[in-house]
Design brief:
- By secondary structure, this protein is of the alpha+beta class.
- It has two domains: 61 residues, no CATH class; 93 residues, His-Me finger endonuclease fold (3-Layer(aba) Sandwich).
- The chain has six helices and six strands, in the order E-E-E-E-H-H-H-H-E-E-H-H.
- The strands form three sheets. Strands 1-2 form a two-stranded antiparallel sheet.
- It is elongated, with a radius of gyration of 29 Å.
- It starts with a strand and ends with a helix.
């Protein structure tokens, strides 16, 4: 009995264990090798994902179930949890701001490790906030928590901020 077979897709001669079983085919194996089969299946899945919303919904549900199982299996492993959280944070940070955490560190160092508004020295990177324009999305500078929150409360509106300054000057006790 032959221990090799030629794939009908890639035309390569391969050992029988490189083919999926199929009792209806000659030699009891598929006509395409495993690599060609998986490529074809991946292509079909990608096409269906784009065109069939029900199929897409089922795939998303399956992915969620797989992720929950993986999480449940590994949630007791503290090292895995730490790495996963950091990986997620890095990914979200890169997606949201378009820069890496390393780029943020370089920005902090270029500011002499100080807030651009109050000049307070940063004790750690956790206390730093990347200020950005909410309308354009453009990055500005690194601020401390208090200054970043203050700008947010004033909705990044310089006129409101100037009125607040006037108010504070009016009530300043000498």
């Amino acid at each position: 009995m032959a221990d090799t077979k030629i794939c009908t897709k890639c035309k390569q001669k391969k050992p029988l264990d490189h083919f999926y079983a199929n009792k209806n085919m000659k030699l009891g194996k598929q006509s395409r090798c495993k690599i060609c089969c998986s490529t074809l299946i991946s292509k079909r899945v990608r096409e269906r994902r784009l065109t069939d919303p029900i199929f897409r919904t089922k795939l998303i549900a399956q992915e969620r179930i797989r992720a929950k199982k993986k999480w449940a299996k590994n949630c007791k492993n503290e090292e895995w949890m730490r790495k996963t959280r950091l990986k997620r944070f890095r990914s979200r940070f890169k997606t949201k701001y378009g820069i890496t955490l390393e780029d943020k560190e370089i920005m902090v160092q270029s500011q002499d490790n100080k807030c651009m508004i109050c000049k307070k020295t940063f004790t750690s990177l956790k206390n730093t906030h990347l200020d950005h324009d909410h309308k354009t999305g453009n990055l500005r500078d690194i601020l401390c928590s208090d200054c970043n929150r203050g700008l947010g409360c004033f909705r990044d509106n310089s006129e409101i901020l100037q009125e607040a300054c006037k108010y504070l000057l009016k009530w300043r006790i000498l």
